[in-house]
Amino acid sequence: MPGQGFRPVFHPAGLDHALRHALQDLRAGRWGAMARLLDETAEAAATAGAGRWEGWTRRTQILATVAAGTDVVLAWRGEQPGSGPAAVMHGRVAVERAVRAHRAGHAHARALLQEAWTACREAAARAPADPVPWIGLLALAGCDARAPRAEHRVRPPAPMLPSGPWGLFAEIEKRDPHNREAYHRMLQFLHARGDGSVAEAVNYAQWAASTAPRGSALHALPLYVRVERYRRARGHEHALDLHWVAEDAVREARRAMDSWFLYCDVPEASQLDLNHLAHALFGALRFADAARVFEALGPYYTTAPWAHRTPRPADRALAEEVFLRARARCLSG
After folding, report:
1. Which domain of life is it from (predicted)?
2. Which parts of the chain fold into alpha helices (H)?
């Protein structure tokens, strides 16, 4: 059997070994490796062309998911109060904590949301060319999706799209067109709307993919919407087997493969995007293409979207079993 004895690994850094080292240092309560990594990343962004903020956005996001449970960024700011990266990470951590508190219905969620808003505004003033503080504000808008304020009900940039925090989105687009995280944050806003329909998310994802350049991870965005449609269809099991082999599902998987994966730098790619693509190609019965994505992933995997093919999505062991079966089936060819 192909891959017999293979065990997948979940690690937020994936193939980014420099980020892995910084996360290890961060978990040990030290900020030095994080500061050095972000200085190097910022320097690379300053000299790069299109997509120059991609690595910066991805690394700051992943670092914040770990730093949010610590006081390491606070210590860093205390030692280097003039550091731009430290200010951006302060905003990142504040947003991560606020969003978590909002989702959990925490009593202090509102205060944390205000604190995060202030931190992002301060970071935006400190680093005016950086899209990340504005991405933080867009993430906070998702906590306001059910009863949005006027600034989160702006007219969309294209027909068939719903109103939303498009002013914040435009600020990100000015700084980093086709920023992956920004488009995903907007999708999260649409999913969080009390009156939002799946059709709105479908239209949005198709618009995003149709306007994205070749090599952009936005070509994988419709795959996320399809997983959400699948998740909401649970209870109608007779329809689920056809969900992934429908003509539009196969077309979405092929477009993500041909327009993004074949041109992407795999170590720089989102593990979630790679897992969603492998999942979509497997479901579309395109096993040879899926095998290429599984091979690119190496030992790494994410529980989503595989967990949604199980009867208990919160059970990570079941998600791993589905991933292993799909991987073995595709590699056996």
Report:
1. Bacteria
2. 17-27, 32-47, 54-67, 72-79, 84-104, 109-126, 132-141, 166-175, 180-192, 198-211, 221-232, 237-243, 247-259, 271-283, 287-297, 316-331
> Sign of torsion, CA 68 320 265 282?
negative
Q: What is the C-alpha separation between 216 and 224, in angstroms, rounded? A: 15
HSE on the CB side for 244, CA within 13 Å?
23
Rounded CA-CA distance 259/219 in Å is 7
The span from the CA of 10 to the CA of 113, in Å, is: 29
Quick one: which of 158, 159, 164, 131 has its CA closest to 145?
Answer: 164
How far apart, in whole angstroms, are the C-alpha atoms of residue 126 and residue 42? 14
**Do residues 134 and 175 lie in contact, with contact meaning Cβ atoms separated by under 8 Å?**
yes
Quick: pLDDT tens for 150-198: 889 899 999 999 999 999 999 999 999 999 999 999 999 999 886 567 8
SS3 of 9, please?
strand
Residues 6+ away with beta carbon under 8 Å from 54: 176, 179, 180, 268
Domain parsing of the chain, residue ranges: 13-41+55-143, 186-333
Angle subtended by helix axes 54-67 and 17-27, to nearest 10: 20
Report the alpha-carbon distance of residue 198 to residue 17 in Å, rounded. Answer: 37
Q: How many CA atoms lie within 13 A of 262 on its CB side?
A: 9
Low-confidence stretches of the chain (pLDDT beneath 70): 1-4, 49-51, 194-196, 234-241
- CB neighbour list of residue 90: distance below 8 Å, 6 or more residues apart: 73, 74, 77, 119, 122, 123
The residues facing 164 across adjacent strands are 154
* Packed helices 180-192 and 166-175: angle between N→C axes, nearest 10 degrees: 170
SS3 303: coil
Residue 21 exposure: Cα atoms within 13 Å on the Cβ side: 8
